[in-house]
Design goal:
Elements: H1 2-16, E1 36-40, E2 55-58, E3 65-69, E4 75-79, E5 94-96, E6 99-101, E7 110-112, E8 118-119, E9 131-137, E10 140-144
Antiparallel strand pairs: 1-10, 2-3, 3-4, 4-9, 5-6, 6-7, 7-8, 9-10
Length: about 140
């Protein structure tokens, strides 16, 4: 009897385990470069990140990383390569306010930085911008993956 109960519990446990629904589908166009940045907010080039609505662009990542200040405790960091095609000479996006735009003439993709990097017109069918962890510790913002 104990063996039957154990077997039923084991089967129930295996059946109830499922793939994590929050896990994102892997983007086939992009690689995962190793990113480890420490932005010192006391330095003039990063001082603007102390104020909401400001952003800086760094040279790390695939085509650069935009770091956007939402509040003094919340930051977003995204790669500036267009996530919906293979990186090319024109796929480095340009940032204007909260919108990142791909200059390639073939696609006109736009992404909203403060809306989790989602595509502005087709958020459910296009890949979002590749994100990085952005955490503020004192006067330093740590960007990593």
């Amino acid at each position: 009897m104990k063996n039957i109960i154990f077997l039923l519990l084991l089967v129930f446990t295996i059946v109830s385990c499922s793939k994590n629904d929050d896990q994102k589908e892997r983007n086939p166009y992009l690689t995962d470069p190793v990113v480890s940045l420490n932005l010192n907010l006391n330095l003039p080039e990063y001082n603007g990140l102390k104020f909401p609505g400001n952003y800086v662009i760094t040279s790390q990542g695939i085509k650069g990383i935009v770091v956007y200040c939402v509040s003094d405790t919340q930051y977003f960091a995204y790669d500036l390569t267009d996530p919906n095609h293979v990186p090319s000479s024109c796929s480095r996006m340009e940032v204007d306010g909260t919108i990142a735009t791909c200059p390639c003439s073939t696609d006109e993709n736009e992404y909203n930085i403060v809306n989790f990097g989602r595509h502005t017109t087709e958020p459910d069918t296009k890949y979002p911008m590749q994100s990085y962890n952005a955490v503020r510790n004192g006067n330093t913002i740590n960007i990593s993956n």
